Structures are given as structure tokens and as C-alpha cells.
Amino acid sequence: MSDVPSSQALEERLLVFGKELSEKPDSVPSGAKRDEVRMAKANRERLAVAHHNVVMREEAEKAVDVRQNMERLKELRLAKQEQEARTEISRANQRPATS
After folding, report:
1. How far apart are alpha carbons 52 and 31 in whole angstroms?
2. By three-state DSSP, how is residue 88 classified?
3. What is the DSSP string of 40-85?
4. Contacts of 29 (CB under 8 A, 6+ apart)
5. pLDDT confidence band for 1 (50 / 70 / 90)
6. Half-sphere exposure of 20 (CA within 13 A, CB side)
7. How far apart are the first and last CA of the chain?
8. What does residue 8 show for φ and ψ, rounded to 5 degrees?
9. Nearest to residue 16, comparing CAs of 5, 31, 27?
10. Taking the CB of residue 29, how many other CB atoms lie within 10 A of it?
11. Element (H, E) at 97
């Protein structure tokens, strides 16, 4: 007999090995690794909350800036319209030149 396994024996081993791999959860390491994963997840969640607060504050500040800018632009637009109306009234009140 030879020491080389037959192709059928290799296929059976691969099937068994594949089944063992599929039964083991890849996302749950054991022992110290599990603690490291748990700590890393907790750290990511903590940073996400801190980052969320910073982003929300920045967005609120941007919203205030946008509202202030819109108010400034509205005032400029109204002042321009008022000036144009005065100019039209002034032209209408001028007497035509006589020759």
C-alpha cells in the first residue's frame, strides 16, 4: 500500500474540514481575543458617541450661520429694492426739460 491518500479520501477530508469551518463562528474569537474584541467595540462605540456630539454641534453652528447670512442677504435685497423704488419716484417727479 502507498502512503498517498486516494482522491476519494482527500475529498472526504476536505468535506469534513469544510464542515468544521462552517460550524465555527468566525466572528467570535476565544479567550483573550474575545476580551480584546469587546474592548475595541466599546471603544469604537464611545468614540462614535463623542464624534456624534461634535458633528451635531458643528451642524447646529452651521445652521445658525446660514440663517444669519440669509437675514443679511434679505436686508440687502430689501435695501436695494427700496433704493430702486426711490429712484423711479424721483425720475417720475422730475419735470420734462423745455426747449
Report:
1. 32
2. helix
3. HHHHHHHHHHHHHHHHHHHHHHHHHHHHHHHHHHHHHHHHHHHHHH
4. 36, 37
5. very low
6. 6
7. 132
8. -65, -40
9. 5
10. 13
11. none
Interacting residues of 50 by C-beta distance below 8 A, sequence separation 6+: none
- Which three cell numbers, joined as nine digits, stand for 9? 479520501
Question: CA-CA distance, 24 to 35, in Å (whole number)?
Answer: 18
Domain limits, the chain: 30-92
- The amino acid present at 93, given as its one-letter code, is N
pTM of the model: 0.47
28: Cβ–Cβ under 8 A, 6 or more apart, which residues? 34
Q: What is the pLDDT of residues 2-49, one digit of tens each?
A: 566 677 776 776 666 655 555 555 555 567 788 888 888 888 888 888
Q: Is 20 helix (H, G, I), strand (E, B) or coil?
A: helix
> Which residue reads 434679505 in cell numbers?
74
Give the C-alpha separation, 99 to 96, whole Å. Answer: 10
